[in-house]
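Reopening this one. Same input as before:
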Amino acid sequence: METRANYVLIGAFTLAVIAAAVGFVLWFQSLHTTKARSPIRIVFEGPASGLRNGGSVNFNGIRIGEVISVKLDNPRRVVALAMVENKAPIRKDTLVGLEFQGLTGVAAISLKGGEEAAPSVPLDEDGIPVLTADPNALQDVTEAIRATLQNVNRIVSDNQESVKNSLRNLETFTGALARNSEKIDNVMLKVDGVMGKADSLMLGLNTIAGGDSGGELSAMVKAIKDLAEDFDKRSGLLMADGRRTLGDISRAVNNLDRNPTRLLFGAGSSSTPAEPPPAARPPAAAPGPRRAR
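Same output, byte for byte:
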């Protein structure tokens, strides 16, 4: 029993320490948030359509805070309380309005501009800064939304028959898909089979190509390269032998031109031909008859 009691005490102490740590973190975070942000009151002299708790407060398009409460001050006046960053450069001449994300998006308070040298935002009776939205800007936003909705309504009205036909075609198409669901399943199975074969083919090509480690294609390329190098070497030797043979033939022809008898009598014959025998001298003429004196 004492052992179980000790375990219970240790567990309770551990849970208490964890709870205290979580509470400290939450307290520190809330303290930091409180110091980093301060309240500001935004007054709308007219409707503030779409504005609700949790809406964003944007300064030049950058979120600097959020709306924490929206209430009616009178039938024509809406007051929103927001928490914004202390570092936000909000001045007395900062323009206030509403901005929307799409046609059905939640409205956000939009703060724009203001001179850096302008005075700070004036304080209300309870010490909270107060800014009043520009009624013209709100009217412009409302008119823009109304004009957009009217344009959408006009487009739908002008193309009502086309919209109906499109819906009918869509219904027909979905009905055809429902009727041919089995065929579509078969087609998809065939497509899956084709894709599987394509994957196998790509794997085979990758295997032939060798991938990172080399394969059949690389071996074939290497064999062709080695054959080409061997053929180049052999052709070089054959060309050298041909040149030597042509040189021998050229020298033999030159020797034949200089000493043709070498071919007939062999290498032992004299290179100078024998002098022919002298020609026989003609007989002396017979003396003629003597003249008388």
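So the earlier flakiness isn't reproducible anymore. For the record, Helices lie at 2-36, 135-158, 160-179, 181-209, 216-258, 261-265.
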